Amino acid sequence: MEGFKAYLNNLKTKLMSLCDYSKDEEYLLVMYSLNLTREQVFLKEIISKKERQKVNGKLIKRLRGEPLNKIFGKQNFCGFEFKVNKWVLAPRVETELLVEKVINEIDCRQEKVRILDICTGTGCIGLSIKKLRPNKIKTLVLSDTFPNALVVAKENKRLLGIEENVEIIKSNMFERLKSQDKFDIITCNPPYITESEYEDLPVGVKNYDPKISLFGGKDGLDYYKILAKKSKDFLAKNGKIFMEIGSKQREAVEKLFKEQGYITTCYKDYSGCDRIVVGSISEVKT
Ligand SMILES: C[S@@+](CC[C@H](N)C(=O)[O-])C[C@H]1O[C@@H](n2cnc3c(N)ncnc32)[C@H](O)[C@@H]1O
Fold it and tell me: Which of 76, 82, 146 for mutating ligand 1's site (highest number of atoms within 8 Å of CB)?
């Protein structure tokens, strides 16, 4: 038996040697390893040898650079728990802003909306919107080109108890979507890391998130070029596209969309970085 507070402090010191240490990670490591609630961890006074062995097994992985979400196979996003694995990008906190902007848009509309979440990965964007506004979604389509990611999206749909009005489609961007299908809202967090950025990514990202979910071509803009050209074929009248961007991509992405006749707005994330671009176009056909 060992005093738990001393053990926790020791754990914290070890974890702080990681360049991607995040505040209070030691609590999460204990919570998930021992299957405890946050309250149980706060109230814990001693830790047994068996418990220490369980935590230490996970600690070794974490100290090798594996992020907690990949070790435990789950990540909280918008208040919901999403399953993650090596085939999908673990949902990031910045992306919650995209969901927030879409929710504001939905709340301004009288009618139910049709949503397409392209490059869906875990499905975190589309499924969170559906959970947060269940009665305002007419249809939700989740699409990704990577079959292994679609398995995860499907599993998350099931785990979140979403049964109706959601279609999951394997498609290389818009290729397999029917152009007669129109959406009021398209959401997309595409791969946007540039060639040079990819080389310098932290171990926790480069070794544990799949390249297909990160790499956006030499200048990081490959997917935005497709989105700018094609999304208007799939947008209903007054439709809007909500995209996450890299912090240095605002100018280039807005230019691509303006060239195609879109009006664009950009929002900064809570760290003050350009993060969400919204494109709207009024002349599209219904
Ligand atoms: C940055 S991740 C975003 C995942 C999730 N939407 C999120 O925000 O956490 C990009 C996703 O795009 C998918 N993807 C990559 N190339 C694609 C393509 N050509 N067509 C459709 N999806 C693609 C990847 O498999 C990955 O799931």
Answer: 146
Residues 9 and 116 both lie in one domain: no
Q: How far is the CA of 168 from the centre of ligand 1 (A)?
A: 13
Q: State whether 205 and 90 are in the same domain.
A: yes
133-164 burial string, b = 16+ CB within 10 Å, else e?
beebbebbbbbbebeebbebbeebbeebebee
Q: How far apart are CA 253 and CA 192, in angstroms?
A: 11
Tell whether pTM > 0.90.
yes
Segment 38-73, tens digit of pLDDT: 999 999 999 999 999 999 999 999 999 999 999 999
Cα 126 to ligand 1 centre (Å): 13
Q: Classify residue 144: in a domain, yes or no.
A: yes
CATH number at residue 134: 3.40.50.150
CB 13 within 8 A of CB 21: no
Q: Residue 69 domain-assigned?
A: no
The per-residue pLDDT for range 260-281, each reduced to its tens digit, is 999 999 999 999 999 999 999 8
Q: Which domain holds residue 36?
A: 2-64
Ligand 1 center–CA 189 separation, angstroms? 7
CATH, residue 24: 1.10.8
On the 0-12 / 13-18 / 19+ scale of CB atoms within 10 A, 89 is: buried
The answer on pLDDT for 179 being more than 80 is no
